[in-house]
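ARCHIVE CARD
SHELF: 3
SLOT: left
DATA:
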Amino acid sequence: MANTPYPESYYAASANAVPPRPALQDDVETDVCVIGAGYTGLSSALFLLENGFRVTVLEAAKVGFGASGRNGGQIVNSYSRDIDVIERSVGPKQAQLLGQMAFEGGRIIRERVAKYNIQCDLKDGGVFAAITAKQMDHLESQKRLWERFGHTQLELMDQRRIREVVACDQYIGGMLDMSGGHIHPLNLVLGEAAAVESLGGTIYEQSPAVRIERGTNPVVHTPQGKVRAKFIIVAGNAYLGNLVPELAAKSMPCGTQVITTEPLGEALAKSLLPQDYCVEDCNYLLDYYRLTGDKRLVFGGGVVYGARDPANIEAIIRPKMLKAFPQLKDVKIDYAWTGNFLLTLSRLPQVGRLGDNIYYSQGCSGHGVTYTHLAGKVLAEALRGQAERFDAFADLPHYPFPGGQLLRTPFAALGAWYYGLRDKFGF
């Protein structure tokens, strides 16, 4: 079988060394078969192993091949739709439970990094940057909302204050979340994979799940082997394909683009982001950026609906970077890549169970780094019979895209065009 390597990216080029992992070539038995070795799958596997389950993880390519190893590397709290939107949709009781969980993912990441000594350049502090007065009003109400749910590490920043943390003239203010932060995302997922193996879990790479035999004792088939399990966790997200048709109809892979500069040197890097916080702006089609451990700028933004790879990523993203930081006009771009995240129509994650023993979580809609770590814990709780938090997610309404898979891309692109106009003209 063909060996699928990591796509070229700064993260792949600077990844920590890892042992080669075999492809599955025989029949194995386990308590839980996890499909997908990204954050959701490995977070689930870790929580299950810590609670005595036998776990086998199947990965179609390499650990962290998908969004987990290619994202912007930002620890951003809450969900892609905030708790007030959820409250209007599902009522105060369910929203209360989801609100309490909205800040847990970042804590789980920090616990994992500390417990398993994961080297992933973890830094504290994330900035939401406002370009318009309307966005600043939104941040003020967001701070009040998050504080209602016990999240207090927040500071509103006026224009003078935000200039102390980011050397960009576009912003009129912002909000600093000290429980936010940033990481080298591929090194985080590689460290989590090593932790899974340290607890006796098994990870097979180059072993795509090609068929699930459902029933009392489900079986996951790969090209050269199969896994018999009591439970299955489906954690393929934007890279699941059509393995589970019920899930494919309710979600859409979307591409986002990222570039990384050459090393900037200590002085230039510190002049851009003196406290080494990460930043995202408040536009609907937002830009996000941060420094790496070796003082490069990682800058991302833009969405390609339907997950096509654009021909020239640098041509899309570099102008955005120069709008924020014109002082980088002579800086070389060393890496440019794209990766897919999974969008849902509601922008809320889809969590559920198929039959009695197949569990899934998907559709982080761009808020995956923290949510996936929480999802792993919630899925593991459900398998142990503690389903209250799982049910709070599972009861969120799921909607298919209008027109099914054929029309979902043009509908979403039309929506993005509309929101792009809103961002541009501030209405």
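SLOT: right
DATA:
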Amino acid sequence: MIKLVLLDVDGTLTDGGIYRGNNGEDIKKFNVKDGYTIVNAQKVGIEFGIITGKVSQLVKNRAEELKIKYLYQNVDDKVIILNEIMQKEKLSAEEIAYIGDDYNDLKIMKNVGLSGAPKDAAEEVLKIADFVSTKNGGEGAVRDFVEFIMKKDGKLEKFFDNIK
């Protein structure tokens, strides 16, 4: 049973585009359906974390808005963070899922109990993913993955019961 879902950001929670405002500020597009599912999946006992290679105030704000338990930014080796979380929370790899889209996600995907990828992920990522969404990154792929997990673990009905 999955207790923690770890998320990549660019290309997974977002479409992977780099958008700049007139003043040079970064802008990211997040999918409201992904966020809605993350918030409500927490009500059925699934925690969330973000592990990303970049640093962004927007990502920090989004993580706080969705009440995501873990936020790790500026990470070169995501497996180090995975091991840290596993030790801290006394979780096994089988209790953790990860969704990512690019080469820097391959190593962590091989070290969790369940791995996922958006439809437009790198070919090497698609080859090893346990679940491939029918949606692209930033377009509901995270929602697809979380719904797959809840269905697999028998939590989807409880999830729908908790929807207001």
